[in-house]
């Protein structure tokens, strides 16, 4: 309990939140790091996974290759990139390492979500005259949305937690608070930094859950099919399900 009490004292000291090395500045740096890495990861993984899931070819190989990256420690990748010429370009090694770390959950969940869409619904949509693009936008993507969102939430939490490694390569972020605590043998500061990172990760996941529910393209349909609803059975006919999404 002593370390927790010391962490609380450190967090409630106003001076620790001010200045270039304060919590506020480090938090903004951490958010910038995480946001850039997540945006880059989404731009790489989601279009590829959704397209491969739509055509039904090559996805398993892509998923397996991306999952190989999970076996390589992010810190090892960061150190190796820092030792290359990329190390002279500021935060670039950290961003690349975090992007490589975030791609697998995004790619895997998006691809699996597309492939788990009921094929009978897809065929019914094609039978109604929908083009491939219409089937993708109106049928496959809305039904794959929950798994895509789970992948995004997983990647977000992982990136926010792992971005603390940026401090080991001379970068900013909340990791600098933790490393500074280690350097001065200040256990309270180390625990405080870890608590801020954990709180940020939980807050980000909570926001994504809320936004995900509000933006769900199948929100109305899912509500009418929820347990206890008089319409919980939903349309038993694949064609009726396809019509409900148009």
Automatic annotation (TrEMBL):
It is found in: Cell membrane; Membrane. The chain crosses the membrane at residues 31-53, 65-86, 92-112, 143-170, 190-215. Its main location: membrane. Keywords: Membrane, Transmembrane, Transmembrane helix, Transport. Residues 225-240 have a biased composition (Low complexity). Residues 221-240 are annotated as: Disordered. PROSITE patterns: ABC_TM1. This is ABC transporter permease.
């Amino acid at each position: 309990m002593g370390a927790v009490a010391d962490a609380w004292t450190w967090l409630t000291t106003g001076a620790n939140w001010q200045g270039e090395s304060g919590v506020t500045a480090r938090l903004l740096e951490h958010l910038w790091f995480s946001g850039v890495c997540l945006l880059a990861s989404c731009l790489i993984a989601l279009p590829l996974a959704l397209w491969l899931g739509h055509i039904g070819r090559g996805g398993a190989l892509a998923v397996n290759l991306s999952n190989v990256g999970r076996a390589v420690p992010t810190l090892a990748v960061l150190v190796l990139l820092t030792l290359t010429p990329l190390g002279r370009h500021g935060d670039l090694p950290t961003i690349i390492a975090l992007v490589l770390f975030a791609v697998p959950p995004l790619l895997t969940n998006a691809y699996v979500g597309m492939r788990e869409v009921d094929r009978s619904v897809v065929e019914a949509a094609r039978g109604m005259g929908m083009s491939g693009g219409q089937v993708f936008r109106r049928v496959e993507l809305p039904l794959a949305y929950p798994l895509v969102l789970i992948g995004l939430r997983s990647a977000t939490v992982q990136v926010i937690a792992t971005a603390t490694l940026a401090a080991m390569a001379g970068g900013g972020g909340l990791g600098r608070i933790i490393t500074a605590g280690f350097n001065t043998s200040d256990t309270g500061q180390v625990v405080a930094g870890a608590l801020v990172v954990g709180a940020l990760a939980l807050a980000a996941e909570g926001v994504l859950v809320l936004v995900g529910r509000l933006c769900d393209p199948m929100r109305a349909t899912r509500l009418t099919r929820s347990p206890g609803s008089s319409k919980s059975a939903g349309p038993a006919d694949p064609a009726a399900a396809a019509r409900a999404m148009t």
